[in-house]
Design goal:
The complex is a heterodimer of chains A (108) and B (171). Chain A has helices at 5-8, 11-31, 35-59, 64-94, 99-107. Chain A starts with a helix and ends with a helix. Helix content of chain A is 83%, strand content 0%. Chain B has two domains: 1-86, Up-down Bundle (Four Helix Bundle (Hemerythrin (Met), subunit A)); 131-164. Chain B has six helices and no strands. Chain B has helices at residues 2-28, 32-52, 56-80, 93-115, 132-141, 144-165. In chain B, helix 2 packs antiparallel against helix 3. Chains A and B meet through helix 1, helix 2, helix 3 and helix 4 of A and helix 1, helix 2, helix 3, helix 4 and helix 5 of B.
């Protein structure tokens, strides 16, 4: 008999794992000043949520969760493309990707 | 059976620690290119989790979209603008301490909130959820309109990216 993962590992473990990954993403956003690494940490947060959606989808035997993961991926791809284009444009003008410097330059 | 239980659990723990370690390295490495590579490793660990969760199609799409498209976009930007150096000369220790404090608070809050949650589970053996047939049924019957709208979103993002990326013509 092949056991499904739903009987081997409680869904709580996936919730804790997603919470840890999400917190690391938030931590990275606050800890680093490099705007490209800031984008990567946002990706990390999105992936934590994706993982939790997929886990719930499997544990509740409902494919809708995985469909939502696809939509999140599409939105993340669009967000990264536009965000990186904005970063490139700002870098041309400000010559820095440290976002404190960018904000200082925009305010002053 | 016992062997299978142990194997699955070992794979779960290995993938989890690998993902968390690589996520920490994304934050703590100095060079942006190393951050990108560690993030790719994190994505592979998460794809392994998807395979473990019987979501094989999702795992493949995840690798193709994230490791194949998004991270390559990051690498292109870093290499084109030649950004592979540490741009944080000023280490503000107070802000960093506050970041660590906020991280701990958020983690404790999330784990504490999730600890008390009781989740009614259905474990009646629908293991073919992640197969492409069930997913396609759901995607093209229940979620057809959001699917089409996401294509409009991608088109709008593409047009916006081209507009933003063009050099301004001085008039």
């Amino acid at each position: 008999m092949i056991l499904a993962i739903t009987q081997l590992i409680p869904v709580d473990y996936y919730m804790y794992l997603a919470a840890v990954l999400f917190s690391i993403g938030v931590f990275g956003v606050m800890y680093r000043r490099n705007s490209i690494i800031l984008f990567m940490c946002v990706e990390l947060m999105l992936n934590a949520v994706n993982l939790l959606l997929a886990a719930f989808s499997t544990y509740f035997a409902d494919p809708k969760g995985q469909v939502f993961v696809f939509f999140i991926m599409a939105v993340a791809a669009a967000e990264v493309a536009v965000g990186l284009a904005i970063l490139v444009m700002i870098y041309r003008n400000v010559k820095s990707n440290n976002y404190e410097a960018i904000i200082r330059n925009l305010v002053c | 059976m016992l062997l299978q239980i142990q194997t699955t659990e070992y794979i779960f723990w290995f993938l989890s620690f690998f993902a968390v370690m690589c996520a920490c390295m994304v934050v703590f490495t100095n060079k942006p290119v190393h951050s990108v590579l560690y993030l790719v490793l994190t994505f592979f660990a998460i794809a392994g989790h998807y395979v473990l969760l019987n979501a094989q199609f999702l795992a493949v799409v995840h690798i193709v979209v994230y490791a194949g498209a998004i991270m390559v976009l990051f690498l292109f930007v870093i290499m084109m603008l030649n950004l592979n150096h540490d741009t944080e000369p000023v280490k503000n220790n107070l802000l960093r301490a506050m970041a660590v404090l906020a991280f701990g608070t958020l983690l404790v809050t999330l784990v504490g909130a999730l600890k008390g949650a009781s989740i009614p589970m259905r474990t009646d053996g629908h293991t073919e959820i992640g197969m492409i047939k069930r997913l396609g049924d759901t995607l093209f019957k229940d979620y057809l309109l959001p699917f089409e709208l996401s294509s409009v979103l991608l088109l709008a993002a593409m047009v916006g990216t081209v507009l933003l990326g063009k050099k301004e013509i001085k008039s």
